[in-house]
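dumping the sequnces here before i forget
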Amino acid sequence: MPVTHKTLVKSKQGSNAQSQQKPLAAKTAKVVSKKKDEDDGTEIGEGGDEWMHGKTLIKPPDQLDLTEAELKEEFTRILTANNPHAPQNIVRYSFKERSYKPISSVDQLAVHFFLEGNLLHRDSDEARRQKAKQGLPDEKATVVTETEDEKLETPLQAAGGEEAGDVEEGGGEDGAHSVDSKTGKKEQKLTNQFNFSERASQTLNNPLRERGCQTEPPPRASFSATANQWEIYDVYLEEMQKQEKNKEKAKAVPKKEDDKGKKKLTLVETQSDDLTKVAKVAKIIERMVNQNTFDDIAQDFRYFEDASDEFREQEGTLLPLWKFQYDQAKRLSVTALCWNQSYKDLFAVGLGSYDFTKQGRGMLVFYSLKNSTYPEYNYPTTSGILCLDIHPDRPYLVAVGFYDGCVAVYNLKEERPEPVYKSSSKSGKHTDPVWQVRWQKDDMDNHQNFFSVSSDGRVVSWTLVKSELVFTDIIKLSLVGAVSEGPEGVPPPTMACGTSFDFHKQINYLFLVGTEEGKIHKCSKAYSSQFLETYDAHNMAVDAVKWNQFHPKVFISCSSDWTVKIWDHTIRTPVFIFDLNAAVGDVAWSPYSSTVFAAVTADGKVHVFDLGINKYEAICQQPVVAKKKTKLTHIEFNPVYPIIIVGDDRGYVTSLKLSPNLRSKPKWGRKKLDIQFSGIHYYPPSFLFLRKTG
Amino acid sequence: QAEVEETLKRIQTHKGVIGTIVVNAEGIPIRTTLDNSTTVQYAGLLHQLTMKARSTVRDIDPQNDLTFLRIRSKKHEIMVAPDKEYMLIVIQNPSE
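..and the predicted 3d for all of it:
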């Protein structure tokens, strides 16, 4: 090194001279180095001096000899950074000057060593690409943690060295990178190379135990329901009913006994509710089944109109519909028929016997047109029924007259088979068969009452007072006319036997009574001993007397003497007489026309008359029963439907539909009818038409 | 009670009636004149149909209620009369 110092200071010449100077330099250098060595002292030591003295100058043989002057010449050398191998005289052609010109500056770079390394600059493309590949997971974390930048900046600044430097550089990316070092992929932790020691400790991990408990699950039941409009409605109804019951209970608190009784009843019901609840449904089904079986009859009843009536001028026919019979009533004959006013398909049949010798039991049977095979209600009675009447306002009350003289009232609403009221010998029952009963309007005290007529000659009014029948004799029928002396001077019985009666439709107090002697008495409720009028009606007992439903003056009567007579109550002789060729059992006016009436005879025929069409003949004469021996006993028109029911002495009831010709309504008003009748007034009685059988 | 029995008996012996089934509110047949499998089948199917029909009627007017249901087929007619607690099914051949 001391050698080189010297050469720096002194050499001026070029590098070629440098090699010459070397031994000289070495000399001087020695001296210098001596001093230096002495200065340094310690390193070289003594041995260096000896080495230096021991050395003698050895001249090489071919060394250039130089004079001393030449030797003292100083050559300055300059150390430059020029590349000795670089050419100094590069010349280039310049087209501008059209000559070669030397280049002033020449590249002096000399590459001594070249090694391809594997370090990339951070900002170079390749580095960026690599970073991109590696940095994707990192950069994601950085995006997430960018928000935490601010939070983490301050602790990071406190962190050592490079990390802080990174934060100070700023910029999101860099900050993120530093955050990265903490949260995401860890950069290699820079550790002190000399005395870094890493110590780790682990806390005691408590052994994991799992403990669980299970309670018993609460009882579960699956529930499903639909919430329809009607279900909601039902619930509301129940609520209302409950509220009403509560109100009633609140009002009727002291009635404890009744409640007890009710409780008993309810208990009984729940026990026996097995099939009783099916009753209603079974009834409906039975009717449906019957409707199916008798489907054609039902259709006929409703819709069939005999078209052939157009071709028959005035005559009509009767179409047989249902036939009602009851097994247990086989031996009995129909003694009474009555339609129910409120339920138009319900009618009552009284069964008994007209035969004096064959008296036994009887039956009260109710049929509905909807079910012809079985009655709706039936009440067996001990004595034969002879007459019945259904209350017009209270369709569940039925008054019945018996052959033994009793009268009874049945309440259809009640379940029991006995009548609600029954007259007994104490309470004034008749001593002879009761032939007719009729309900009246309620009296002043709102009690129901009805009248009855019997062969013992009394017309009695019965009033339903609480639970009793109270009777009042209205009139006693006395024999009018010739009184024949009985044998031995015994006074003859003065009582006539009433066999039928009827009340005027409009005039309440006026009524007619037909007797066994063939007389008809016009009576009034007001007069108990006197008749208003008496008509010599028939030769035999008057079987039926009926007021006309429209005409206030006309009534009809029939008898076993084969005749049917029409009267005007102001005239003592009949207006019309019809001979029907057989004992007439019953006669009835039609509810739709004042001129139509029907009669049934013992030869099984039904005769329908329409005085508006034909005054002399029946417009329909039709046998309705199979066997000719059966006598028809009763006939009734249905108030609404165009059918009639006919009872016979075998216990059957036949229903028949009236053909259109029989249903013609009168085309004229009442006035004309009056004229009709009044016109006959002027005819002397001999001109009355007596029809002979043909 | 006896009256109901009698009515049911009358229905069963009526002309053309093939069978009768009494079904309770859950659709389980209580009484039947047919064999078991047929009964169960009829009861189940008709119960559903009746409920549906009833629901329909009452949805239209909640104050109304189904009185009966008739299903007429080629071979016979099935009549169902529902009630609050029971249902009566009758199969009849009307043409006999």
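Chain B touches chain A at residues 1, 3-5, 7-8, 10-11, 14-17, 20, 22, 55, 58-59, 62-63, 67-68, 70, 77, 79, 81-88, 90, 92, 94 (CB under 8 Å).
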